[in-house]
Specification:
mainly alpha, about 325 residues, 14 helices
Length: about 325
């Protein structure tokens, strides 16, 4: 009698009730508080930006999988929905619709599906779409709408620079932090979201609540977000303590520029981050250091998007140095 065939499949081989779909929707739920704040601040422009990005990502994933790749359509797994939501959180409210559609195509078609789909992409898709738009359309991508509480119009909002943009430009023209402090939002305003910038820069409190939800649900661990923010805080604190008139204090850096959004919601992407705790810490330190370097010496006032993508490229190398212990292996006993 012939023995049954041996079925060989790709990892993971452990099964649990926590599916990729549930994880994706947990992250979406965690972003709801920040979305509501952005909707309150930017009104219909925020709703339109989110709707177009989400619909575009879902549509492109469906069309590419069905007609180009001819594989199973997976738009219900939540990954395309999350990509669209994160892409919207990384662009200005009121960005031209056609640009949002282009960014969605790059995020889904190039950064995700060209690598094979969910679980195979090397770079965070939403950040690839965001950086592509920033490089191709720098003017439109840096026309940040100013915060208008309970804005219920769809007219063009008053545009202005972000907190980091005001600081970077002011320091370049010989200003000091004492002079610039009157032009930037207070720490309380940045906590609550009464500030200009992308949808993902609204309300640090809302983003922190979402990040806490993810940690309680064990969707993410503390290692990456805490290490990213701690590294940024230490580095900016050192520069600020040396010359407080030419460097912003750590609180400003942590509450602005999408640092919290990047640390909790994009750097922690399971596909593009390291597998082990030690690897996560190294990965996060790299993100924090590169972000600060770009903010201080780069052309852009915000740097966490570039920092995450750069460290995404190092993840295979980090994983090769910090490998998880193989199942079934024994830990060597210490001889007393």
């Amino acid at each position: 009698m012939d023995s049954p065939p041996i079925v060989i499949s790709a990892s993971p081989h452990l099964h649990s009730e926590r599916t990729s779909k549930k994880i994706m929707y947990d992250v979406v739920i965690a972003l709801v508080p920040a979305f509501l704040v952005s909707l309150y601040i930017f009104g219909f422009n925020a709703l339109i930006t989110n709707s177009i990005a989400i619909i575009s990502c879902l549509l492109f994933e469906y069309l590419i999988q069905k007609y180009l790749m001819k594989t199973e359509v997976t738009i219900t797994d939540g990954s395309a929905l999350l990509t669209g939501l994160l892409l919207a959180f990384n662009v200005p409210a009121g960005l031209p619709i056609w640009m949002i559609i282009v960014g969605s195509l790059v995020a889904i078609g190039i950064a995700k599906l060209s690598f094979g789909g969910l679980g195979f992409n090397v770079f965070n898709p939403a950040l690839v779409g965001r950086v592509f738009l920033l490089v191709c359309f720098p003017v439109q991508m840096t026309l940040w709408p100013m915060a208008v509480v309970n804005n219920t119009t769809i007219a063009d909002a008053v545009s202005g620079a972000t907190t980091l943009g005001i600081i970077k430009e002011g320091l370049q023209f010989g200003g000091t932090m004492t002079e610039l402090s009157a032009k930037i939002p207070s720490s309380v305003d940045m906590l609550l979201g009464i500030t200009g910038g992308s949808l993902g820069e609204m309300s640090a409190i809302a983003l922190l609540l979402g990040g806490l939800y993810l940690m309680i649900r064990k969707v993410i661990s503390w290692h990456i977000p805490v290490t990213v923010l701690l590294t940024m805080g230490i580095m900016t604190g050192i520069f600020w303590s040396i010359d407080p008139e030419h460097y912003a204090n750590p609180v400003i850096h942590l509450l602005s520029g999408g640092a919290i959004l990047g640390a909790f919601f994009m750097a922690t992407d399971m596909v593009t981050s390291p597998m082990t705790k030690k690897g996560m810490v190294i990965f996060a330190i790299g993100i924090g250091l590169i972000t600060v370097i770009i903010r201080f010496y780069g052309a852009y006032p915000e740097g966490i998007s570039f920092a995450i993508l750069i460290m995404n490229a190092f993840v295979p190398l980090i994983n090769s140095f910090f490998k998880p212990r193989r199942f079934g292996s024994k830990i060597k006993a210490k001889i007393m």
